[in-house]
């Protein structure tokens, strides 16, 4: 693809598409109460509004990444926009539980196509310093987008309706489709065909794995099903000449550390984003809007730090920046675990959020760079798919762990404290992965 000399429309398409995915994830956090009221959903049914999306998102990610390699990035990207836009419209129009759950599942398929394809387009388009800068923006969007989306979701839930957040994706998807036609070069992809055995075994295996964590019944059979089908998937990828997830992606020490670290990091952060707005509403009397705005200390700091990531990466190295970022995030989470209503918002939540925001700004871009490190062009889509699988599954696993931990205690505050401590522990394990896998792997390549 041609390098952009004027306004970078390609980067805009990549970042806006990624932001749409993040927006719909975060709106659920601040809009659950309103959704339940409007559609008469109980707590168990409400959980499926999020779970249905996670299952299809995680299950189709590898297919979405490999399809871009085989059939062309632009063509597959446009298909993802169509599915995501239609899914968003149907979610906004939902009038009952089956409709919103099915629509969220359909929307998740669109996200599973968009997420790896956008990162693969980034890798195809940029090289050298420009790639480092683009990855910095992409990684920053993961943190900033999630935080800003909490605010947007709070505004919609409090002042308008939760449906607006899904309706707005429709015109954005149409605009992104137009920009893709105009600015993305048409690529023909590679010769070959999809690995259907690998596709369906990974879909069933990962869906069963996610369900075994977040499901409300038959969790053990689901876990056993996941083990069986993931074993079939690994065997198939080993023997296939055209795998959707080449096992050679896991031969690089730096990438392995990044996959593990991202899984753990997002697990901690997803739980943090989910339980903290509820705490502020129930213990401090915040409205949904106020709870969203209360994330500004994290969002603003994250944005400022993100602008410095490209320069700091050149100075400290990707691994050094990542170690610093994870350590700061863990320190902020540890501080947050001491929250009590007596400490109040500013000292008990806002101040730790500043530290978390700095750490998040330092961490997400280096994670993205490390996870696609040293990949060949033919594997860019598959590598991007694995990146997003770790993101999605890590978030689902971590969220379930933190929520389960919180529910073990009678009081919400003490449950929150212990859940956040567990999140800090996950971050510590991510730090270990960065120190012993990513940093040595990066130095080995130098």
Automatic annotation (TrEMBL):
Domain of life from the UniProt record: Bacteria
Membrane topology, record value: Multi-pass membrane protein
Primary subcellular site in the record, as a coarse category: membrane
Gene Ontology CC, one term: plasma membrane
Keyword Membrane: yes
SUPFAM superfamilies the UniProt entry points to: MFS general substrate transporter
UniProt keyword terms in alphabetical order: Cell membrane, Membrane, Transmembrane, Transmembrane helix, Transport
Claim: Endoplasmic reticulum is one of the keywords in the record: no
InterPro entries: MFS, MFS_dom, MFS_trans_sf
Segments forming domain Major facilitator superfamily (MFS) profile: 10-442
GO molecular function, one term: transmembrane transporter activity
Bilayer-spanning residue ranges: 9-33, 45-64, 76-95, 101-123, 135-156, 162-181, 193-211, 217-235, 256-275, 287-307, 319-338, 344-364, 419-439
Subcellular location: Cell membrane
Protein name per Swiss-Prot or TrEMBL: MFS transporter permease
Species: Levilactobacillus koreensis
């Amino acid at each position: 693809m041609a390098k952009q000399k004027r306004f970078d429309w390609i980067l805009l398409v990549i970042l806006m598409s990624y932001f749409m995915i993040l927006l719909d994830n975060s709106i659920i956090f601040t809009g659950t109460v309103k959704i339940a009221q409007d559609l008469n959903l109980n707590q168990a049914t409400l959980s499926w509004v999020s779970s249905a999306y996670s299952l299809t998102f995680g299950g189709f990610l590898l297919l979405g990444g490999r399809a871009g390699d085989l059939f062309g990035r632009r063509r597959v990207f446009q298909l993802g926009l169509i599915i995501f836009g239609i899914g968003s419209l149907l979610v906004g129009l939902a009038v009952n539980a089956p409709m919103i759950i099915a629509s969220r599942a359909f929307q998740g398929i669109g996200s599973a196509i968009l997420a790896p394809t956008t990162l693969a387009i980034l890798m195809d388009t940029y090289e050298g310093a420009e790639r480092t800068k683009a990855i910095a923006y992409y990684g920053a969007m993961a943190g900033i987008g999630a935080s800003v989306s909490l605010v947007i979701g709070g505004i919609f839930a409090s002042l308008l309706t939760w449906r607006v957040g899904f309706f707005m994706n429709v015109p954005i998807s149409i605009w992104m489709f137009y920009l893709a036609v105009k600015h993305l070069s048409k690529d023909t992809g590679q010769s070959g065909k999809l690995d259907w055995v690998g596709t369906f075994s990974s879909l069933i295996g990962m869906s069963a794995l996610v369900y075994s964590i977040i499901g409300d019944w038959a969790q053990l059979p689901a876990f056993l099903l996941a083990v069986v089908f993931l074993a079939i998937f690994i065997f198939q990828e080993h023997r296939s000449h055209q795998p959707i997830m080449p096992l050679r992606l896991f031969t690089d020490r730096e990438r392995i550390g990044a996959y593990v670290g991202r899984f753990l990091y997002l697990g901690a952060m997803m739980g943090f984003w989910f339980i903290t707005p509820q705490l502020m509403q129930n213990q401090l009397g915040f409205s949904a809007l106020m709870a969203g705005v209360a994330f500004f200390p994290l969002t603003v700091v994250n944005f400022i730090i993100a602008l410095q990531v490209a320069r700091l990466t050149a100075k400290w190295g990707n691994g050094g920046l990542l170690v610093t970022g994870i350590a700061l995030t863990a320190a902020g989470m540890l501080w947050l675990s001491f929250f009590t209503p007596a400490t109040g918002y500013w000292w008990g939540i806002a101040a730790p959020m500043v530290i978390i925001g700095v750490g998040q700004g330092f961490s997400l871009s280096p994670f993205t760079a490390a996870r696609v490190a040293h990949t060949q062009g033919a594997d860019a889509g598959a590598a991007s798919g694995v990146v997003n699988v770790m993101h999605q599954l890590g978030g689902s696993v971590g969220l379930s762990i933190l929520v389960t931990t919180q529910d073990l205690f009678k009081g919400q505050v003490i449950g929150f404290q212990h859940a956040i401590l567990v999140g800090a522990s996950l971050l510590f394990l991510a730090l270990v992965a960065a120190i012993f896998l990513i940093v040595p792997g990066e130095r080995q390549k130098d």
